[in-house]
Amino acid sequence: MIKQRTLKNKVRATGVGVHLGHRVEMWIRPAPPDTGIVFCRTDMPGSPTVRAHALNVNDTRLSTRIEDSQSGARVATVEHLMSAFAGLGIDNAFVDLSAEEVPIMDGSAGPFVFLLQSAGIEEQGRAKRYIRVKKPVELKEKDRFVSLTPFNGFKLKFTIEFDHPVFDQSASEVEIDFASVLMKWK
Q1: Cα first-last separation, the chain
Q2: Stretch 80-90: mean pLDDT
Q3: Nearest to 51, CA basis, from 11, 80, 91, 105
Q4: For a designed S-S bond to 175, which of 54, 72, 148, 157 qualifies (C-beta 3.0 to 4.6 A apart)?
Q5: Superfamily of structural domain 3-127
């Protein structure tokens, strides 16, 4: 059984929100099993929370923004921190923010990985939850599509097609089989 993970200790960072330019203090704290990643807006009355969940994404122009529809609390530029959580297998954490954006740091997930590793990672007593694709699913919009197909494992394949000279000279397809950690570039 692969267990859920959280942090051993809380960790703090200070930075600037890239789009609004506001100074942001951020605390990342351990959370109980089955909590997920929960952002808390400490600058707002009552410190409302926003769960990091696909259904809470309300804008993806220039960054990913999530919003709690009941409280109206929003958090923007979550993608780099969420990548660090995912890459380190952290399922549960509280992220306290003093402004609407996660600090940009150096523009990558690297500083967040460093922070999370500095806090320490702790296994919890509950099994991780996974989504199993049992039948093919496809979503199309104009000339774009995404599809999921059943597979005994975890494999991702990305293809991008743009009519632009930059993409004529670089890889346009990547396939990653996480079971063998084999990457194929085409």
Answers
A1: 35
A2: 95
A3: 91
A4: 157
A5: lpxc deacetylase, domain 1 (3.30.230.20)
